[in-house]
Amino acid sequence: MTRNLRARANSATSPTAADGAIDLFEYALLRILHYRLEPACAKTNAPRLRFSSAKPILAECCILLSALAWLGREDEDKVRATFQEGSQFLEARGSEPALLPRTECGLDCVDRALQRLAAAAPYVKRNILLACAHSVAADHSVDVREMELLRAIADTLESPIPPFVEAQEPV
Known about the structure:
mainly alpha; 0% strand
């Protein structure tokens, strides 16, 4: 069974590696597949809970919120407003979340951040996801790419978003 699951996971990732680049949709799909299949394949324990507040993982939270804020936006004032909308839900008392430049919140940075955030306590993960959701919805519109990244984040944080949340096609 484990060998079969591992083979399926490998076959699912081969199309993404074929062109040598991973776009947002492929990244989201890989994150979700990894989250769903890895426990069955690797017989690993869940990450040990290491963070009972957002303060020690604020840098990682800022990576997620910055990536979501920059997604599909060019106007820095709108990006900053989107980031601020979400960051107020982090509850990192005594620390000020900071918007990162676009170059510091790519998918590789998001992936590293998610690996560390997986060790947060459930209520911290809930607040992180709440911050991400408010950031995405700040402009009262959710496009497909925002929804894909939000679902990948939610799945990794073990807080899946119900499928009834529909994204709008980008204009």
